[in-house]
Amino acid sequence: SAPGAGPSPDGRGPDRAPELPPPAEGAPGGVTTPAPLGATPAAGPNGDGAGPSIVSSAPTRAAPAEGGPPRGAAPPASRLATVRARRPAPGARPGTTRLAGSPYSPYGTPALRAGVGAGAGRGGVSRVAPGRPAAPRGRAGAGPSAPAARPRPGAPRPTGRREPPARLAPAPVPPLPPTMEERARAAVRRVEKTRLLTGGRVMLINNAEAEECRIATLDDGRVEEYYVDRVSRQEILHNIYKGRVVNVEPAISAAFVDIGEGRHGFLHVSDVMPSYEVCKDLTKVTTYNMSARPKGTPDIRKLLHRGDDVLVQVSKDEIGKKGPSLTTYLSLPGRFLVLMPGLAKRGVSKRIDDPRDRDTLKRLVDTIQTPDKMGFIVRTAGSGGAVNEVQQDFEHLMKLWEAIIARAARYPAPRAVYLESDLVIRTIRDLFNDGMREIIIDNEEVYERARAFMRELMPGKEDRLRLYQEDIPLFSRFAVEAQLESFYERRVPLASGAFLVIDQTEAMVAIDVNSGRNVREKDPEKLAFSVNAEAVPEIARQLRVRDLGGLVVIDFIDMQDRGHIREVTGMLHEEFKKDRSRFNISEMSEFGLVQITRQRFRGGLERLNFQECSHCKGNGIVRTVESEALNVLRRVRLGLAGVGVSEVRVTTQNAVAAYLGNGKRRELLAMEDRFAKRLVIIAAGEVFPETQILFLDDQGRPVTVEG
């Protein structure tokens, strides 16, 4: 007899546990039936012999089956503990629970056993992860319980005391995107903050990363100019090469020149100096008078021939698939002068429009002693230079030109004979003037190089350089990063609630001025004028920073007052005087359109930082799922009807594949049966660049189907 067993009431033997019948039909689901005495428990998921605890979905304990032990009696040690689910906490999702160290599991799955069994033997309650529905409390009967499951690594140890159920925190409401007015006000606040930090005109040079150098000029906290140079992208703008003519095309009046930089350069006849017709020796430069240039378009075949060596300068960098543009009108920029070898021209920059300054500079030009074959133009910075400084600048440029000529005579074509200075030195040389308060650099090596350059060419000005050594990035410290992000957006908000829409196409740049939510003026004419006047400086700034050029068309809000039209056009001219690129502005048409041509040197800020989308191919739109699926269906029907096709294989995105498999299943099966050919549809992911359809023969080789 079993230990501890007493005599049976009928005296025929030891007392044994009664055999329990199976649960009656209709009994509450999920209630564990006690196992017979001595039965071996099933192996659990952890191999410890403890089976999974099945949790009832009923809120109260179900009545025991007929013939079972009386209510409240302790079950034998070998029986599984019956666990009763308590009422879920308010806000908890019914039918699911989250135990510490276990995944989000529904009631009755083996994932619950590790949490319930660990505390069942000691009357404990498994912990509930914060922010999740509470787990059901387990209570074992009196007497020894089933072997406890080993807790998962990292799971909290049960404390043995009951804890209050965890309540679900309300789901956070995602913030709404800022409105145009809020974004405009935030931009104004950033500019005001930067104005307090800088004040005046400041140049920031960010070269903390070795792969990229960025330069921004701020005027009272606003980014007015921005330049980027990357190590991975070689810039050849303004370099001088000894090139070789590889082809002459009279149909387009141009020649293609090999300069040793991959793509051949494009040299138009208008950029060929006529002196090349009589002078092929590059060590000699013939003086050419621009006023004596013949009228009309000369025949390029009389100026250049295949195999000729020419000295050319890159006037426009590579843009997209177009090679660089070249010119034989060379120019060497200095601090105060621009040297132009071979041109009998001396003058003053057109940017200097003050009559007094122009007269002063013209008298300065007459005092400079130059060879007969050299022309030059006094730059804007020359207005503040003394006679001896301008003369020293000219002598420095002459030594540079002599070195270029000697190098061109020594090396065969194609060969680079002059490389423009790096971005830092070039920008300081071209933009620094007395109005710039300081130059802040965050790289010590670049700082020392800039200091040496300014000490040589701008003595006494190097004290305006400052080395930035704070932990906060330089552009973030002066709120430049936030402003730069706006230059990548298509929609540009204005402070009044109006906005600009800028679209760059292959043919032109289109800018649309919209009043938006600006309703301050009741008179439509005054509203149109105020919005247009506010948009003018921002348009000039956007074109300058984004480096957009070519043909620019601005669609202003229609105005009827001729005085307002003249005033807006005049404001455009004034704002574009800050631009270093050449430009031409037309009068406003009756439709409110203004056309601007702006010189473009590079591909623009957008082309530098972005690449074409492989999904939409740069269009910005894609086919809808239904349209793409119907198009695939038509092409599949064409392929199945083709001669020599045994299989049609379609690779497309998930949504299109699901539409075909669910909505067009009958049509696809009917086509397979009709043509007795195989059709395979492959779902290639959520975003797939382009649907691919292959027509294969019985050997798996591609077949071309016309149509």
What's the SSE blueprint?
Elements: E1 96-97, E2 105-106, H1 113-120, H2 180-197, E3 201-206, E4 212-219, E5 222-230, E6 240-249, E7 254-258, E8 265-268, E9 309-316, E10 325-327, E11 332-333, E12 337-341, E13 346-348, H3 355-367, E14 374-378, H4 387-410, E15 415-418, H5 423-431, E16 436-441, H6 444-457, E17 465-467, H7 474-477, H8 480-486, E18 491-493, E19 499-504, E20 509-514, H9 524-546, E21 550-555, H10 562-576, E22 583-585, E23 593-598, H11 605-609, H12 625-640, E24 647-652, H13 654-663, H14 665-675, E25 678-683, E26 692-696
Parallel strand pairs: 3-16, 13-14, 16-17, 20-21, 24-25
Antiparallel strand pairs: 1-2, 3-4, 4-5, 6-7, 6-9, 6-15, 7-8, 9-10, 11-12, 12-14, 18-19, 19-20, 21-23, 22-23, 24-26
Plain-language structure description:
With 707 residues, the chain is of the alpha+beta class. The chain is built from 14 helices and 26 strands. Strands 6, 7, 8, 9, 10 and 15 form a 6-stranded antiparallel beta sheet that branches. Helix 9 runs parallel beside helix 10 and helix 12 (625-640) packs across helix 13 (654-663). The chain is globular. The chain starts with 95 loop residues before the first strand and ends in an 11-residue tail after the last strand. 27% of the residues are buried. The model is unreliable at 1-69, 72-146 and 282-292 (pLDDT under 50).
